[in-house]
Amino acid sequence: MYSRSLASRVALVTLALLAVASPALAHTGEAAAGGFVTGFLHPIFGWDHVIAMVAVGLWGAFLGAPAVWLLPVTFPLVMALGGMLGAAGVPLPGIETGIAASGLVIGLAVLFAARPPLPVAAVIVAFFAIFHGHAHGAEMPGAVSPLAYAGGFVIGTGLLHLCGIAFGVLTRSRIGAFAVRGAGGVIAALGAGFLTGAL
């Protein structure tokens, strides 16, 4: 059982991460200029990535076991596949649209307390992970160390998932569940804004 003080501290860390994130989209079409650190910071300093990664963790925590670990594991694994496609130059239409839609759709799932069967939730998460991964992978060839860059963005993504899971622990109380669903609404609104800009 998690204590309220732990949940409060984790919520503060999550808010701090969101506060330092750049309001710009994480991918500008330019090649990454570094290795691990560049890859690690890429998802953390782009709001479009941050909201989706946190939303996956929130949704997993809301759904409970085994979704609480399955969704955050599915996302980076499939994202790595998308990254390989991007690095290989395989075209994927609507990358920015897919990334923006991920925040909207998963945020709405949290807001409305959607409880689909676990395979359906995993497919939704995996679908959007392809777009996020492709965006990262398309920038990987310009990195000093593509493998280090890939490791960095997978770890950065995982930490954002953990922030969402940690905040999602608040669902153990009625007020906490309301706060988590409210966070889903905020994420959905930001995703809608990004989607409007991407269309």
TrEMBL record:
Q: Which UniProt keywords apply?
A: Membrane, Signal, Transmembrane, Transmembrane helix
- This one is known as Urease accessory protein
Q: Name one Pfam family in it.
A: HupE_UreJ
Q: Where are the transmembrane segments?
A: 50-78, 90-112, 118-135, 147-169, 175-195
Quick one: signal sequence residues? 1-26
Q: Where on the tree of life does the source sit, at the highest rank? A: Bacteria
Xref: InterPro entries:
HupE_UreJ
